[in-house]
Design a protein that fits this description.
This protein has 218 residues and is mainly β. It has one helix and eleven strands, in the order H-E-E-E-E-E-E-E-E-E-E-E. It has a domain at 79-216: Jelly Rolls (Sandwich). It has one helix spanning 2-13; strands spanning 79-87, 105-110, 112-114, 120-122, 127-136, 140-147, 152-154, 160-162, 167-176, 182-187, 208-216. A hairpin with a 4-residue loop joins strand 6 (140-147) and strand 7.
């Protein structure tokens, strides 16, 4: 019993005057935050992981659709010229040995120009295709002559001729020029004994043509 009585007396003593308990005080302001501590040292770098083996190559994808057709390339002919004569009228005189056949009339031409009735300028270095036909009264020959800066030189691989009768002398050859602005002519070769007559009205009543076609193909 004495134990319980002492507890009760302690509890009451707070209420007993003059020892009445005071009311709780107001909460004080929050204190200032302390300074941030120093940063710790960085940890050691971990070990690099092991490389994995390359995986197998995947299967090829399906072929895509065909693309559109591109534009046409440039023409294979870089320059061309068509020159001609009409008989009677042109080539009224015979063509002596060493003289050139005249083609004084101009057809279509781009990049090939004339320098006279019987001479023509090849402006660029390249491969040229030459075709000609001339009606002749006599047996005879015609040859291409080229001036590459040192005067006209007859080109033996270009000789065309006939032994008898009245017919055309024709040829079709390829030549390579080595300098710009080479000059070309179709000639009765030097050393031949016969002057050539360009046939007028060959085979009928119309003036007949002699023609020279030049093409630069490369």
């Amino acid at each position: 019993m004495s134990h319980h009585a002492s507890v009760t007396a302690l509890a009451v003593s707070c209420e007993d005057p003059p020892k009445k308990c005071a009311a709780a005080g107001a909460t004080g302001p929050r204190g200032v935050a302390g300074a941030k501590g120093p940063q710790g040292a960085a940890g050691a770098t971990g070990q690099r992981g092991l490389a994995r083996a390359t995986g197998p190559q995947g299967a090829s994808g399906a072929t895509g659709p065909q693309g559109e057709i591109g534009p046409d390339g440039a023409s294979g002919v870089l320059a061309f010229g068509y020159f001609y004569a009409l008989m009677p009228g042109d080539n009224a005189s015979t063509v002596a040995a060493g003289a050139a056949v005249q083609f004084p009339r101009d057809g279509a031409a781009v990049g090939i120009t004339r320098t006279g009735p019987s001479s023509f300028n090849l402006e660029h270095i390249g491969i040229f295709e030459f075709s000609w036909q001339v009606s002749i009264n006599e047996a005879g020959q015609l040859i291409l002559a080229l001036d590459s800066g040192a005067g006209m030189a007859e080109l033996l691989p270009t000789v065309a001729g006939r032994a008898t009768g009245k017919a055309q002398i024709t040829n079709h050859v390829l030549l390579t020029t080595t300098v710009v602005n080479s000059q070309l002519a179709v000639r009765n070769p030097i050393g031949n004994s016969t002057a050539l007559t360009i046939t007028p009205l060959a085979g009928g009543t119309r003036a007949v043509s002699a023609s020279l076609v030049i093409k630069q193909i490369r």
